[in-house]
Amino acid sequence: MALTAPTANTPSATPSATPSDARRRDADGMAVASFVLGLIGLLLFNAVFGPCAIILGTLAIARQTQRRGRALLGLALGVADVILLIVLVTLDNSVFWQFG
């Protein structure tokens, strides 16, 4: 019994992922990362995480992510991070939260 390698015409061959599928998966990952960074940025390092969340959310929307809601939420949280940073710097010349 001779074994042959599957070719593109045989049903057992797996179709390769198209570049648009890979790009969409990347965009989905960017949307989730934008949301997570925006959420963390409300408490820690908002000067860094806020702009990163804005950039990743914008890129995810531009690349037509399936997770558009998360990308928009990450974008909104990134903007909130930057606004929080501006408020903190304006009120007490600090970029960190201070309790007490």
Tell me about this structure.
With 100 residues, the protein is mainly α. It is built from three helices and no strands. Helix 1 packs parallel to helix 3 and helix 2 packs antiparallel against helix 3 (68-92). It starts with 18 loop residues before the first helix and ends in an 8-residue tail after the last helix. The model has no long low-confidence stretch (mean pLDDT 81).
As a whole number of angstroms, the C-alpha radius of gyration is 21 Å
Measured distance between first and last alpha carbons? 79 Å
Could you report the average pLDDT, rounded to the nearest whole number? 81
Instruction: State the helicity in percent bands.
Output: 55-70%
From the spread of the alpha carbons, the general shape counts as elongated
Return the structural class: mainly alpha
β-strand percent reads: under 5%
Task: Report the uncertain regions.
Answer: none
The SSE string, one letter per element, is: HHH
Discrete helix count: 3
Largest sheet: none
Oligomer: single chain
- Number of DSSP strand runs: 0
InterPro entries: DUF4190 (IPR025241), YqfX-like (IPR055338)
Pfam families: DUF4190
Keywords: Membrane, Transmembrane, Transmembrane helix
Organism: Streptomyces milbemycinicus
Element layout with pairings:
Blueprint: H1 19-41, H2 46-62, H3 68-92
Short description:
The longest helix has 25 residues, at 68-92. The chain has helices spanning 19-41, 46-62, 68-92. It is built from 3 helices and no strands.
